[in-house]
Amino acid sequence: MHAESGPSGEAAAVFKEKQELRKTFTTLLLVLLAGLMPLQSHAAKKNAPRTPPFSEAPEVRVFILDMHERHGFDVDHLTRQFGAIHSNAIVLRAIRPAAVPEMQRSWLRYRQRFVNERRISNGLRFWQENGAELARAEAIYGVPPEIITAIIGVETEYGRNMGKFSVLEALATLAFDYPPRAEFFRNELEQFLLMARENGVSPLEIKGSYAGAIGIPQFMPSSQRHYAVDFDGDDRIDLRQSTTDSIGSVARFLNMHGWQAKAPIAVPATVEGDPTALINAGIKPVLPLKDLLEHGVTARGDDERPAALIDLVSPYQATEYWIGFENFYVITRYNRSSFYAMSVFQLAESLRKSKE
């Protein structure tokens, strides 16, 4: 306990009186502000400029005509759907990189979000409840249950957080109002409209992430159309409601991107000297492990197996190094981040060890 500091005697009495007056004034001011803020908030919201609907944008009209010519969409119907959505400022804020460089990359902070007791506990429950489906997916696609479970755990915490954004509005916002990746998101918008039509669902009804990812495994529309599978045998693919379809689809996605059954994913490494050249070589395994060992890397594994040096950086902390093999690279095809792939791997390892 620390003693409070302050004047003594008469000066102390004056000081105390002034403090009381300040407290009274502050209280009155807070009460006044509390009464005004709702009115100000309501007025600001009422008077805030609203962007025109997407249907009024020339580039959207061109996109609609293109969808009509190439895929047979009804122009009027599609125009009405784009007339119901607007550019979403929250989506644009979320997609932009962090303004402070230090906030962009911190492996320790990233890991704490995804490899923790809550996700391990819920993951074990998910594994128990879906054990037969996970085992069948491994038998068909070669992907172990812990990896499938970990991806779903990292993506949506086993289906609990699938996103509340209008996917049509999010994709349109990024396709037409975010130039750095407009081409990518315009393609995803096209794939999304095709996917919705194929499944007989209104695109205005589908919710997902701010980037347009959908369902329990958070597939982008192009991934759903190309890799998702009807794993529960009901003659339709539903990644929003069917855990079984989601399990099969994650396994199939990894399999089709080159997953090697029973092969290693990653091992810890230490580095002597400057690893810049090895890091700059990228995360795709190209060189055999023995070549990395000749450049100051120490790690266990098959000397002939292709490998890549992975650096996991955190501000003001020593960099953590790992060797990533082909299966590690395959996980990055789901989300092109070494942080993401390592969090999936480490959550999977925690699940496997707890299960055993």
UniProtKB/TrEMBL annotation:
Give TM segment ranges: none
- Quote any Pfam family the record assigns: SLT_2
Q: What range(s) does the Transglycosylase SLT domain occupy? A: 59-349
InterPro entries, per database record:
Lysozyme-like_dom_sf, Lytic_transglycosylase_MltB, MltB-like, SLT_2
Quote one Gene Ontology molecular function term: peptidoglycan lytic transglycosylase activity
Q: Where is the active site?
A: E155
Biological process terms in GO annotation? peptidoglycan catabolic process
Say which domain of life the source belongs to. Answer: Bacteria
Q: Which PANTHER family match?
A: MEMBRANE-BOUND LYTIC MUREIN TRANSGLYCOSYLASE B
For this entry, the protein name equals Membrane-bound lytic murein transglycosylase B
Q: Which organism is it from?
A: Candidatus Propionivibrio aalborgensis
